[in-house]
Amino acid sequence: MGVSILMKLSLITFLVPCVRSQIFTLPHKMAVLFYYEEDILRFLLLAQSISSHEQVQDYVASCQTRLEEVHSLGSKMEQIEKENHLEMILERLVGNPVHLYCLVERLVRQLPAIRKTLAEDMKTADIAEGINKMLEKVDMVGEEDLVGVTQALARIQFAYRLDPVDLASGILLTFKTSARLTSAQMMAIAHSCYSGKNPIRPAVGKEYALAIEWAEGADKISNDQHGSFSFNYRNEFLKRARIVHDRNWRTPVGQRGVLPNEEVFVSKILNDDGITKSGQELRKEEKVFLQSEPQVRDLSSGFNIHDFYALCRGETLNQTKPLKDPKCYSTTMNDPYFLLAPLQLELLSDDPQIHIFHQILTNQEMDFMTTRVMAQLKAATIQDISVPNGGGQKISNERTQSSGWMWDQEDDLLYRLSKRMSRIVKLETFRPPNEMVPGSKWAFVEAEPWQMGLYGPGGHYLPHWDSFDILDPQSIGPGGVWVGNRMATFMFYLSNVVGGFTAFSRVGVAARPSRGAGVFWYNLQRDGGREDRAMHGACPTVLGIKWVSNKWIREGAQVWRRPCI
């Protein structure tokens, strides 16, 4: 992301209000909160010099790791310094799930009490007022956001089989960062998992297994003295969680794809010999169990969570079919338009066909798209099939990202890109020129507007189909024109990230995000029926900010391009 984009990002953030909903899914909003926390620290350091407050000292101390990652800048700085600083914040702090959790935890749990304490002290009342006025300029996070970043950390840990102790030490896969979690924060995550109020995905309830892993991790990093309150609380929590886990344990035999999971381990914790196994030991046993356990058909969830996360980790599956002729080559697609700049095509799967086109977007196009949509991003939704006409939408944690829409009519760059995309996939993807004149009603027939998606750390989208189970109201266009279902998807990656693969669990392949690349696949078979193998999901992002842009191509206009026989 270039500096010029960060300048526009900061302007958009300051000028455009945000609906008080899931701010944690909006990385540009979180970057501004990190930025303003530097001013909060200046206020708190001033308060420390005037009057001693333990809460203030704790807050300042908890910020040291974020300052090691990105040094605070002075209150007076050149604009270019500010833009560079925001870019570093977005990359190193907002893109790190541990730093993000710590920021939200400080702002939601610690800062309100500090503001109250400072306001009640005559020596520091003016400082409290200064903090209050400053915070009026930003969209503040709340309890809902703390739930979201807690889920994100737990999701990353479970999906990628990470040791919570490593996460607490700022280690994410092979990357070492300055981020840190305290034992108390790990216990807060454990308690959230144990409560069952906010599971990391809709299909599960009380996550006893996750709670035990996080509490055992908290115990390992703790320096509490034997017999202290926190020591006793942690041990009582673990004792209770282990008992309840074993009481609610269900055998995973014949349940591959469902069990073991976030709720229960592969076996009981206390075995017949009276030996207690740790969560990490049981996860290792789970890995061996899943390698030998046969597949289960007709899962109620529609997808195998173990296969999905295995692809997220870069593993291969039993159903992964080796390509008959592995291909990654240059091609003109038999179109002279690409003669001077051939397409770089990689075949990810030949049945069904899934293609990756590398380096098909320019930096100008990607920067334009990410900047243009910034002001309208909001929490993404999924189709609510309980609404009969197919037009229902709902927010669900099976999809945690922000999204926005852009029409070809908004800028000639987008229209040209849609026309180029048509040449690549040999389908109708853009409106005829006479429909693009100023004043024309904006409607889609050939393909939907560009949907921009933005995933923060831990952001994901569980396996799903892009085609509709119940056709949406837009399946019939202006004048009764048949628009139809989403025949195909062309999804573009606009950033490089760690994690965040696009996994096709029924095919056994996954596409790795690469800035400027696009993945193309069909959602419908030639007879119009759903291509079940097109089920796919967005793996949790581990480090970084993941930008994608989707172009959903509708079936109605493709009658001559992709006939049914």
Strand order of the largest sheet: 3-4-5-16-12-19-10-9-6
Percent of residues in beta strands: 5-15%
Task: Provide the structure class.
Answer: alpha+beta
Detail the poorly predicted runs. 1-20
The profile of the biggest β sheet is: 9 strands, antiparallel
Q: Got a strand count?
A: 19
Query: C-alpha Rg, in Å?
Result: 25 Å
The average pLDDT score comes to 90
Cα end-to-end separation: 44 Å
Helix content: 25-40%
Shape annotation: globular
**Tally of individual helices:** 16
Q: What would your notes on this structure say?
A:
With 565 residues, this protein is an alpha+beta fold. 39% of the residues lie in helices and 14% in strands. It contains 16 helices and 19 strands. The protein has a nine-stranded antiparallel sheet, with helices on one face. Strands 11-17-14-15 form a four-stranded antiparallel sheet, with helices on one face. A two-stranded antiparallel sheet has the order 1-2.
Please sum up the structure shown.
It contains 16 helices and 19 strands. The chain is of the alpha+beta class.
List keywords for this structure.
565 residues, 4-stranded antiparallel sheet, 16 helices, 19 strands, 39% helix
Fold blueprint:
Layout lengths: L2 H13 L11 H24 L3 H9 L1 H6 L9 H16 L2 H24 L4 H11 L7 H17 L4 H5 L2 E2 L2 E2 L6 H13 L12 H14 L7 H20 L30 H14 L12 H8 L15 E4 L11 E8 L2 E6 L4 H11 L4 E2 L2 E2 L9 E2 L7 E5 L5 H14 L24 E6 L5 E4 L21 E8 L4 E2 L2 E3 L4 E3 L6 E5 L13 E3 L2 E3 L2 E9 L11
Antiparallel strand pairs: 1-2, 3-4, 4-5, 5-16, 6-9, 7-8, 9-10, 10-19, 11-17, 12-16, 12-19, 13-18, 14-15, 14-17
Helix pairs in contact: 1-5, 2-3, 2-5, 2-7, 3-6, 6-7, 6-8, 10-11, 11-12
